[in-house]
Design brief:
The chain is mainly alpha-helical and about 1950 residues long. The protein contains 58 helices and 17 strands. This is Calponin-homology (CH) domain-containing protein.
Length: about 1950
């Protein structure tokens, strides 16, 4: 709006405005400049441009009257806002000024052209101050306006701010702006920082994600490495433990050995010590006894042993001494021995004791020594041994630690693995969720792109259609213009001919339908050619009407028709001449059990369906892509082998495929293989592959023909295809079965790429084509190659049929026949929602390890497989590309319709399957289709077997019939032989007995022989009867078997109806079975007849055999022969298929020879001759009709131009305007004081009469000139000349008809000559074949041929009789009559000449004599024989054909000529009528113009005389224009005061503390801004209300309320003491207080209101849009609008004003506080004195309160819906408005609203009671403790109350459900019917809970029950109305 205002102010008005309109217009000076531009402010010089307070007050004081007169609201508040430069005030005020100025300009523009003068001169008046003054009513309000002006100035000065403050604010404004700018910069900086922070956070997040990913990968690598290291350590640990154990064992063994050695040495030391001890003891003993104490053992040094011995001897004592010494010694020894023994014992004891002690000490010492020695030994060992010893000790210490650590580590590993598993699963779920979100986002984007593309296509299509519709509309307008022009010109309706011509041009889109633009000189020739072509198109369009005798060529006798014989001939020639199209080699696939194709939308499950059908029914899957790939591979293989492309090899080359898999000798060269392949030629697959490769290399698509040929080739190969053998996965050790070796030269690889050799015991089960055909063209080609169906050629044959001689309908192909496809079924997988296709395409994910494909939505991957989501990849498929998906969907949308239409043309071919369902259901549906087809084919096979059985039974019955006839013949023969023998016997016996010498013996012998012969024949007859009985019985059994076969066939027909093929075969088989059964039955009947005849013959034989005497003429009475018709009944052939040809007359004469069909070349020549004839005829007719149309258009243009020229003549300018202008000047030039003079008035009246007479004289002169021109038009010779030209045009058409007649007869003669000539012998041709050519005379020249002169002369003897209508034609169109006579004479003369004449007897006799002479001469000369005579029947047939054709052509010619004559006379009559009508119309125009001009002059005279008589000047400019008197009101001499603008209605100020609708809206907006949820803290609400009261948003009495009093008043709305306020309840109570009509509504009105809102709710979701809410009429609207309702406005008063209470008091049940005394001493205002809410009429100047109140309610209760559109819950709104001073009444209203029941005691269920307690739901208040009762609690309360009341009587309950009839309020007229219709429904709704057993309660039951009391007090207090304003005073 600002840009619009700036453009208006700166560009249009030139005011110096900037971007800040508030600052520019703050001083008011620019407003003055603006008004001065419009001449609204003449005192611009008194305005001051300064921005001082006094200057601005002066400016606005001067501006206020202008604003007031302009109708723009301007008061002191607005002026102060403008001075303070508040945002938005100046633009709004400027917009109001612009709107009001525009309205004034429109009003002036509307009134400035009301008169003819203003329309002529185009006078304009701009708004001005005087105009504004003039628009007001001329009343005495100047004092009031001046007082108002002074009051405005005083108020403005009093309310204006302090000048110092204004100057200060103006001085500080730049700092304020700088502060605002800095704040904006800070905000922008914050936004930039936030954006940078967001970018950094996103970058950091991406970096962290990358780090996390790398950390995960590093962690995975470390885990793998740690696991490897751990395994190596464990292995090394095991080896070390093994080595340590070995070392430990070695050390222990070494220690054990050392211990043993030490023990051994110790033992030796002990023994050595003991011995030493004993020796020492001995030495000690000897020392005591000896001298020295030592024993010298060794000899002294230097002496020999002998010497020593001697020395020893010398030293020895004497013997006695020795003896004594010995005895003493012995005694001493003995004593010593005894002592020694004693001492030894003692020593032994001591020794033993010592040994024991030593052993104990030794053992301890040994242990200590062992330890010391071990330590010493270890210390002496090497460093390695020491380390090993230390390691051994350490190992021994660490073993336990390692075991404990191992256990701990295993526990930690287990916990870690558990955590890692959980983390992995969590990451898996998170990754899957992320993938799912990405997929959904991508799917949503693609769907949006698809919708956008669809929208673009729809828009393009709509634009195309709009352009077409626009062109059609223009054409329609042109057509309407032509029709209107024709009607205006002729006064008649458009003739049918012109109308059909225009319609033809309209259908063809001919631009010539409209008025053509004048062609440029360079384009004149092209325009002329286009015009001629358009005329030819019109002529061709009229040819059909002419031939069918419709439209303008309608005949009373009906259509003329065509020559049927000629049509039959032309049809036969067209068939014979037609080059038979090449028929493709049809594949023999009818024996395959299943022939299926699966097509449909992308991603509808086609491949899954095809694979499932292939798996279940062992079918071969034909995939077009795989077939193309195989074909291209075969072509490449052939090209690589031979070097020649396969498509360049001639077709004549051998087509046999070479077995490239055969074994080749190792020495065979590559050239031999290439030569063999080249000699064999490429296979069909290789040829097709080469074609496809060439097309793809050229940048095109795969040709449809090649693709269809590949598919058909695959279908052929399906006959020899067998499914691969299934390998049992459990049989692991068994080898897979090997497929049988293929035969040499057998088929190639299968579609899947693996060689599938045919199984010897399994034939082809069929095929299923996956995703083909995709287009209708491919489907047509496929049917052509499968069944030879070629509808295009059939349609071409129909289109090429002759128009003037159409062939019989039976001779043309029936294109609309039900078709039978070469396939059994085409399964169409439908997918209506493209979003599902997009989801199926985009959600596919491939597991590269397993190869399985998952779908993120429909087949999600398992969440317990770690790493699966990470390794899932998008399917690398071209079809998975988003662009490809869009392209496929678009192609499907374009191609599906034609393909579906083509499939629907076939009987039971299209089998739809819903592809949007689960995969199992789709596969099951497809399997059901296949099963049905198999059942149908089984039924067809059963029918075929039944037919075969019936045929066998028929053959058996016919054989039995033949045998029975043979038996009958044998019986009859035996009877005849017996009769003969019997007669011979009787005759012989008579001869023997009657002779002279009778011989009894001979007689007896003769009798015996005859008896034997009779017995033999009788035996034969009896045997024949027995055989006939057997054969008849066998025939009857065969007939019964055939009947059973027919029953079986009929029973199988029902199952075969599923398949069209099966049904056709079954029906044919059943028909054959029926025929065979009928034949068998007839054969059985004949066999039975033969049996009966044989029995009759046998009985006759027995009768004759038993007879003794027979008469001589005795005969056998055989059974009668069966009827010949019965014998030759249909379906029975007793003599095989051959039948003799018998003449139809039964005479046995041979049939006449029939002519042979013509050769194709000859037929083509004749057919070309006929086409030339027909083309010339049709073109001649088209040219003739085009000429007629041009001639008629020329006539129309002539009369249209004539009328236009006459209109110009009537409307040519004259001197009347100048004369009137001169008179006006002279009339108004008379001074005003002289106008009152009687003489002056008389003079003016005289001048007026003179003016009138002069003007009338001019009118008479113009009328005379127009009549003269009209007489000249009447004497014009245009019509006779045009009729003569018209007759010549019809002569040209007659010439075309004559040429056609002659050409048709010549064509008949040529065809008869070609057809019948071969049947005549040479030289014997009849005269009919030698007829001369027929030539039509030249009719356009007018000359009469000499041979026809006598034929058309009625006085001549050879004249041809003419029809009666020719005479009438001759009177008016002599050329056409002459042409008609010539043609009819020619036609009848030709017909007479073609008739064969009677043969002359003399000539016949002469010809016979000549023939006899010629024959004799020929015989005498020995020449050749004479040619045979022609068959007269052939001659008769030839003549009949020629005469029939000629007669029909003559009748057609005569009818056509009569039609042309009638049409010619009709057009002449039309031309005469058009001319007379034009003349009449011209006369009417002249008379009407004369009357109009005279009436205008009389009106002018009347105005002038009235002004003259009144003595006043003429106030307006008067002008005579054409036949009108124009009065220009824009040229006013004395302007009238314009009416004052109507003030905008204002809302009256409500009394007391009540709020207006504006204040309620402001309060609602404040609450919505502060607490959108609906709940607000009491303290905050009190603060906000006090602030609003101080700011003036609330009524003046509210300003005295303190925060404490406001808080106390708001606590009334918090019964649960939650410290929160439901501010909607508070505002609703204020609304009820301000509008008492709301509270006066009763239960019925509120229930009706719910029904009204429900009717407005189009989507039935309980929510209303803003349009629906505005359209719904509320109860207070129509109650205020009722007749008699007071509409008095409350006078404006201050907030302290009081109103008197209305008379009477409100009833207890009245909802409004009418006449009640307030708690603060004030009285409630009477609602009748308050502004009523209603719908006032548009001109009553009353404030429209309903719209304002409904907007308040909309803002109060509307909320955004799921789609973002604001909606209003109307039931919640009504519940909030149910508040009443009587809480009991308010609750009852709430029950009626919740149940939509008009009763005041409605029953509500638990859910409804819950809704009453929480109108907007319990969720928002749960966290605030405002929802103490949940659904279960409410249900418990209701159930408890319901159970406690269950014992009451049903009558009381029923009485509670109905309310008083008068309780309902007034209902709007449009809602009466709905409310009445809803009453029964409401009663049913109220009774439904009780009837269904659901717990329900009424308001009374809930309030007066112990269980519901607490609920009512805590939850239903909202329905007790509370006076918040009074509460603030308490």
């Amino acid at each position: 709006m600002s840009e619009l205002l700036r453009k208006w102010l700166a560009d249009e008005l030139g005011l110096p405005v900037t971007d800040n309109l508030e600052q520019d217009f703050a001083s008011g000076y620019l407003f003055a400049q603006l008004f001065s531009k419009y001449n609204l402010q003449p005192d611009l010089d008194h305005f001051d441009t300064k921005r001082m307070p006094d200057a601005m007050i002066n400016n606005y004081t001067r501006l206020q009257p202008t604003f007031s007169k302009l109708g723009v609201h301007m008061d002191t508040r607005v002026a102060n806002m403008l001075i303070r430069e508040e945002a938005g005030v100046a633009p709004r005020l400027l917009y109001s000024i612009k709107q009001n100025l525009g309205s004034i300009q429109k009003t002036l523009a509307k009134h400035k052209h009301t008169g003819n003068l203003g329309r002529t001169l185009g006078a304009s008046v701009s708004p001005s101050r005087g105009l504004l003054e003039a628009q007001k009513h001329n009343t005495s309000k100047e004092k009031f306006e001046s007082g108002t002006h002074r009051h405005f100035e005083d108020t403005l000065r009093s309310q204006a701010a302090n000048p110092n403050a204004i100057m200060e604010s103006m001085a500080l404004s730049k700092y304020t702006e700088e502060g605002i700018r800095q704040q904006r910069e800070v905000l922008a900086g914050l936004l930039r920082d936030r954006a940078q922070h967001t970018a950094q956070r996103d970058t950091f997040r991406a970096t962290q994600i990358d780090k996390l990913s790398s950390a995960r990968s590093d962690k995975a690598q470390r885990l793998e490495r740690d696991e490897a290291v751990h395994a190596a350590l464990l292995k090394r640990k095991e080896e070390m433990e093994r080595e340590e154990l070995r070392v430990e064992l070695a050390l222990s063994e070494k220690a054990r050995r050392k211990n043993l050695e030490a023990l051994h040495h110790a033992a030796l030391d002990v023994h050595g010590g003991i011995d030493a001890f004993e020796i020492n003891m001995k030495r000690l003993v000897r020392g005591e006894q000896g001298q020295e104490g030592e024993e010298v053992v060794a000899p002294p040094a230097g002496r020999t042993p002998l010497e020593h011995m001697e020395q020893m001897k010398s030293r020895a004592a004497a013997t006695a001494k020795l003896l004594e010494d010995t005895a003493a010694y012995m005694r001493g020894v003995k004593d010593a021995r005894a002592d020694e023994v004693a001492s030894k014992r003692e020593r032994e004891a001591r020794r033993r004791k010592m040994v024991v002690e030593q052993q104990a000490a030794a053992s301890s010492a040994e242990r200590k020594a062992q330890m010391e020695s071990l330590l010493t030994a270890l210390q002496r060992q090497s460093a390695e041994e020491q380390r090993l010893a230390a390691r051994l000790w350490q190992v021994s210490q660490e073993k336990e630690v390692m075991r404990e650590n191992r256990l701990l580590r295993e526990r930690q590993y287990a916990e870690r693995r558990e955590r890692d598993w959980e983390e992995t699963l969590r990451r898996e779920v998170e990754l899957h969720r992320s993938m799912r979100e990405t997929y959904e986002a991508e799917a949503a984007l693609e769907m949006e792109a698809w919708r956008a593309a669809q929208q673009a296509r729809a828009e393009a299509k709509a634009a195309k259609h709009a352009a077409f519709a626009r062109d059609v509309a223009y054409q329609l307008v042109s057509l309407a213009e032509r029709s209107a022009e024709y009607r205006a010109a002729t006064g008649n309706l458009v003739p049918r001919r012109e109308w059909r011509e225009w319609l033809t041009m309209f259908v063809a889109g001919d631009p010539q339908l409209g008025p053509p633009a004048p062609p440029v000189a360079a384009e004149a020739a092209a325009a002329a050619a286009e015009m001629r072509e358009a005329c030819l198109r019109v002529g061709r369009a009229l040819v059909d009407d002419y031939l069918a005798c419709t439209g303008d060529w309608l005949r009373a006798e009906g259509s003329i028709g065509h020559d049927e014989l000629l049509g039959q001939i032309v049809g036969e020639l067209a068939v014979l001449a037609r080059e038979p199209p090449p028929q493709p080699e049809l594949p023999a696939i009818e024996t395959l059990p299943l022939r299926l194709a699966v097509v449909g939308a992308p991603f509808a499950g086609k491949t899954c369906v095809a694979q499932e059908l292939s798996r279940r029914y062992k079918l071969r899957v034909l995939e077009p892509e795989a077939l193309v790939a195989e074909a291209m591979a075969a072509a490449q293989e052939y090209e690589s082998a031979t070097g020649v492309p396969a498509d360049q090899v001639p077709e004549a080359a051998p087509a046999a495929e070479v077995d490239t898999t055969a074994a080749v000798e190792p020495s065979a060269s590559r050239l031999d293989t290439a030569a063999a392949a080249e000699a064999a030629g490429p296979s069909p697959r290789a040829r097709l592959g080469a074609q496809i490769a060439a097309a793809l290399r050229a940048g095109g698509d795969v040709p449809d023909e090649a693709l269809v040929s590949l598919v058909v080739l695959g279908m052929k190969e399906s006959k020899d295809w067998a499914p691969p053998a299934e390998v049992d996965p459990k049989a692991k050790g068994k080898a897979a079965p090997k497929p049988a070796a293929p035969a040499a030269g057998a088929g190639s690889k299968s579609v899947s790429g693996t060689s599938a050799a045919p199984h010897p015991d399994d034939s082809g089960r069929g095929f299923v084509v996956d995703g083909f055909p995709r287009t209708a063209a491919q489907a047509v080609l496929l049917e052509r190659m499968l069944t030879g169906l070629d509808l295009d050629s059939e349609q071409a044959l129909i289109d090429a049929a002759s128009v003037i001689a159409p062939p019989p309908t039976s001779a043309l192909p029936q294109v609309a026949r039900p078709l039978v496809s070469g396939l059994d079924a085409v399964v169409v997988c439908g997918l209506a929602d493209p979003e599902l296709a997009l989801k199926r395409a985009l959600g596919r994910r491939l597991d590269p390890q397993t190869g399985r494909v998952y779908h993120l939505e429909f087949d999600p991957p398992p969440s317990n497989d770690p790493g699966l989501s990470a390794r899932l990849q998008e399917v690398a498929d071209a079809s998975n590309d988003a662009q490809q998906i869009q392209h496929r969907l678009m192609s499907q949308a374009e191609l599906a319709g034609p393909l579906d239409d083509w499939l629907r043309r076939f009987s039971r071919l299209r089998r739809p399957v819903d592809g949007s369902g689960p995969l199992g259901e789709v596969l099951a549906s497809a399997s059901d289709i296949a099963e049905g087809l198999l059942r149908a084919k089984a039924a067809a096979a059963s029918c075929r077997s039944a037919a075969e059985a019936a045929h066998k039974a028929r053959a058996s019955a016919e054989q039995a019939h033949e045998f029975a006839e043979l038996a009958q013949a044998a019986a009859e023969s035996a009877a005849r032989e017996l009769l003969t023998a019997k007669k011979a016997e009787i005759q012989a016996a008579a001869l023997l007995a009657g002779g002279k010498n009778p011989d009894p013996a001979a007689t007896e012998v003769l009798k015996a022989q005859a008896a034997a012969k009779c017995a033999e024949q009788l035996k034969v007859a009896r045997g024949a009867v027995a055989d006939a009985n057997g054969h008849a019985e066998r025939a009857a059994n065969s007939a019964a078997m055939a009947a059973e076969a027919v029953d079986r066939a009929h029973k199988s027909l029902g199952d075969a109806e599923i398949s069209a093929h099966a049904e056709t075969e079954a029906a044919a088989a059943a028909t054959e079975a029926e025929k065979a059964a009928r034949g068998a039955q007839e054969a059985a009947s004949k066999a039975m007849a033969a049996k009966e005849a044989a029995a009759v013959a046998a009985s006759e034989a027995e009768r004759f055999a038993s007879a003794n005497d027979l008469p001589a003429d005795a005969t056998i009475n055989f059974a009668p022969k069966p009827d010949a018709h019965a014998a030759g009944a249909p379906g029975v052939s007793t003599s095989g298929e051959a039948a003799s040809t018998v003449d139809a007359t039964g005479s046995g004469e041979a049939a006449a020879p029939a002519p042979e069909p013509l050769a194709r070349e000859l037929a083509a020549s004749l057919h070309e001759e006929w086409k030339t004839l027909e083309t010339g005829y049709l073109e001649g007719l088209a040219l003739g009709f085009a000429s007629l149309a041009e001639q008629h258009a020329e006539a129309q243009r002539h009369f249209a131009g004539l009328r236009g020229r006459f209109q110009d003549l009537l409307q040519r300018p004259d001197e009347k305007p100048a004369l009137v202008a001169k008179f006006l000047t002279a009339f108004n030039a008379v001074e005003a004081d002289l106008r009152g003079n009687k003489e002056a008035r008389g003079e003016l009246l005289l001048r007026a009469e003179e003016l009138r007479d002069a003007l009338w004289a001019m009118c008479d002169k113009k009328m005379e000139e127009a009549e003269a021109q009209r007489a000249a038009v009447a004497s014009d010779t245009f019509v006779p000349d045009h009729c003569a030209t018209l007759a010549q045009q019809f002569v040209a058409l007659a010439q075309v008809e004559g040429d056609r007649f002659a050409a048709a007869l010549n064509f008949l003669r040529s065809h008869a000559h070609s057809k019948w000539l071969p049947l005549f012998p040479p030289g014997r041709e009849p005269p009919s074949l030698a007829l001369p050519d027929v030539a039509a005379p030249d009719l356009l020249s007018g000359a009469v041929p000499p041979e026809l002169k006598d034929k058309i002369d009625p006085k001549a003897k050879a004249s041809v009789p003419m029809p009666a209508w020719v005479a009438s034609l001759e009177q008016r169109a002599a050329p056409l009559a002459l042409a008609t006579k010539l043609l009819l004479a020619l036609a009848k003369t030709t017909a007479a000449s073609w008739e064969p004449g009677a043969e002359d007897p003399k000539k016949a006799k002469k010809d016979a004599a000549a023939k006899a002479a010629a024959g004799a001469k020929g015989k005498s000369k020995g020449g050749e024989e004479e040619a045979p005579e022609a068959d007269p029947r052939v001659v008769e047939g030839l003549n009949a054909e020629l005469l029939d054709g000629c007669g029909r052509e003559l009748a057609i010619l005569e009818a056509r000529l009569q039609l042309l004559a009638e049409r010619c006379l009709g057009q002449m009559d039309e031309m005469a009528a058009l001319a007379s009508g034009t003349l009449g119309r011209l006369g009417e125009w002249v008379r009407e113009r004369y009357r109009s001009e005279c009436a205008a002059v009389a009106a002018l005279d009347k105005v002038c005389k009235a002004a003259a008589a009144a003595g006043q000047p003429l106030p307006h400019d008067l002008r005579l224009q054409d036949e009108f008197l124009l009065l220009d009101e824009g040229g006013l001499l004395v302007e009238e005061d314009p009416a004052l603008p109507r003030p905008h209605p204002r809302e009256g100020a409500p009394p007391g503390g009540l709020l207006s609708t504006k204040q309620l809206g402001a309060l609602t907006a404040a609450f919505l801004s502060a607490a959108p949820s609906g709940f607000m803290r009491l303290q905050e609400a009190a603060d906000m209300l006090c602030r609003l009261a101080v700011e003036g948003a609330l009524p003046e009495p509210w300003r005295g309320a303190t925060v404490a009093s406001m808080l106390g008043a708001l606590r009334l709305y918090d019964p649960l003491h939650s410290t929160y306020l439901d501010w909607r309840e508070f505002v609703a109570h204020l609304v009820v207080a301000s509008f008492p009509l709301i509270a006066r509504a009763d239960c019925a009105e509120l229930a009706d209101q719910i029904d009204i809102c429900a009717e407005m709710d189009k989507d039935h979701d309980g929510l209303l849009s803003q349009e629906e809410w505005s359209a719904a009429e509320l109860w207070f609207q129509y109650r205020a609008a009722q007749p008699g309702a007071p509409q008095a406005e409350v006078p404006e008063a201050s907030g302290e004003a009081e109103t008197e209470a209305g008379a009477g008091s409100a009833s207890e049940s009245d909802a409004g506080p009418r006449g009640a005394q307030r708690a603060d001493g004030e009285k409630w205002p009477d609602p009748d004195t308050i502004s009523r809410v209603g719908t006032p009429p548009p001109d009553d100047e009353q404030y429209d309160s309903p719209a304002a109140l409904k907007q308040v309610l909309w803002a109060l209760f509307s909320a955004p819906s799921a789609d973002g559109t604001p909606r209003l819950d109307y039931r919640a709104c009504m519940l909030y408005l149910c508040a009443d001073r009587d809480a009991f009444a308010g609750i009852k209203k709430a029950f009626s609203v919740a149940t939509a029941n008009i009763s005041n005691n409605a029953r509500a269920s638990a859910d409804q009671v819950f809704r009453i307690a929480y109108p907007l739901g319990a969720e928002p208040g749960q966290e605030l403790h405002r929802s103490p009762f949940g659904k279960d609690d409410v249900a418990g309360v209701v159930k408890a109350v319901w159970e406690s009341r269950a014992g009451q009587s049903a009558g009381a309950a029923g009485a509670a459900g109905t309310g008083p009839a008068g309780a309902r309020g007034a209902t709007p007229p449009q809602a009466v019917a709905a409310a009445r219709g809803a009453s029964a429904k409401n009663a049913a709704v109220a009774a439904a809970p009780a009837a269904s057993g659901e717990p329900s309660v009424t308001a009374e039951q809930l309030m007066y029950s112990a269980g519901g009391e607490r609920f009512v007090k805590r939850m239903l207090e909202r329905y007790a109305w509370k006076d918040a304003f009074v509460a603030t005073r308490l």
